[in-house]
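Before a colleague's protein record goes any further, I have to sign it off. What it holds is a sequence and that sequence's fold in token form. My question to you is simply how this chain folds and whether the tokens agree. Thanks in advance; the entry in question is below:
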Amino acid sequence: MKKLIFQKYNQLALLFILSLLAGVLLMFRIKVTQSFFMLFLVWNIFLAAIPYAITFLVQLKPSWFTPKSTRALTFLVWLLFLPNAPYIISDFTHLQWTSSSMLLLDASIIGLFGLLGLLYMVYSIADMQRLFLVTLSRKQQLLFTICTCILIGFGIYLGRYLRWNSWDILQNPLGLLGDIGTIVIHPLQHKFAWIITICYGMLSWISIVIVNKLRCAR
């Protein structure tokens, strides 16, 4: 545990500082407005942290994930929850219900939580590539990242506009798969779905590129 924490010290320190700042601003807003309106961000950031927690656990207890079946199941669960990380960026839509006096504060709070979510996504994807996909070539790694970003964008569309959740794959799999199938089979009738998918997919890709560039610059 200590070794892993030291290896990830910069990551964990940045995530902690941003979490602390976002939490302080959120508590300040609750105190000033006497409203819990923005408290949903706490649940959203919890969901956003799950993919990162999964890859962290894999690094902490690699022996647990040696069997291929366990690795495959872990990867699927990770992929299922991954869109929750950048999903928080879509929470800017809630600003339409905030008052003008709280607009800047609310935008800052959502921005900080959104940045946290994007970092959880980028760090988790990097860990997954290193842990489970290390045998892939650079082109295959690139293809994996592109496909993952597209799936993330599609997942955000399902969550924000169709109101599906990650656990609905267990609660209502037929309904979820039905909506996915309809969009995939009839893409021209669901242009908006693909526009949102591409937009959030590009945002995810750009986030990965920027963070990787900053890493290399250090």
About this structure: The mean pLDDT is 92. The two ends are 25 Å apart (CA to CA). The chain has one domain: 2-217.
